[in-house]
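2024-03-11 09:14:02 DEBUG pipeline.ingest accepted 1 chain
2024-03-11 09:14:02 DEBUG pipeline.ingest length=259
2024-03-11 09:14:03 DEBUG pipeline.predict start
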Amino acid sequence: MGRGNLSSAALPRSFFDRPSHEVAPDLLGRVLVHGSAVGPVAVRLTEVEAYGGPGEDPAAHTYRGKTPRNAVMFGPPGHLYVYFTYGMHFCANLVCLPDGFGSAVLLRAGEVVAGVEQARTRRSNRKPPADGEPLAAPKPVPDRDLARGPARLAVALGLLREHNGLDAIGEIAPGSAEGGPFAPDRRLTGVPHGSAALLAGCPVDESMIRSGPRTGVSTARDTPWRFWIDGDPTVSPYRAHVPRRRRAAATSVGEVPRS
């Protein structure tokens, strides 16, 4: 997909000590790794959305201030804010700005660059059949769709409610697998279970970055804080907000997208 060589150098916390709309385009081409008991998965970020702070961005979870649910967004930068939406999906964000400010970037899509089979297994999981029904074979998930959309990205990485607040400033052992740590058909090593790390990856040239309105946002809908890599097949399709009934538990940063 034209990603070139990916660096496994860890990014510092200061990378996130900036406004979210400045961090967001700089996240493109970076790699987020999450380790689990069954093996780590790494995703090269290709699409993100920035959300602002309290009182300034009505589409953000932080707009009305700090609550128990959004408290992670007001904590140190570089942590994961993971939330549940529409009663069915988890979505992941990376917190920006210093303690107390409340801002983040939603991770909308990416390319799985390591741990592909593990990501495919997670994405292929399906509900068990009803009594008497045959077990249908899972439909194969194309590589481009493994993390194409915020909910799919969270599933591919294995991010759940318990990972809300997980620190993404960490390191992996570089070159720890034959062919380098980002060989898709090999398992990463040096990524402890339950840890996460944002790696330098391969920053995207500014000429390849596009921006536009955020997906599915009902307020501040014209704010051009969605950023993506032009022409990358893993970028999700843009959808404008369409009013619909939701469960009481449903909410999102930016009214969450249907991935």
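2024-03-11 09:14:41 DEBUG pipeline.report The domain at 7-125+136-229 is CATH 3.10.300.10 (3-methyladenine DNA Glycosylase; Chain A).
2024-03-11 09:14:41 DEBUG pipeline.predict end
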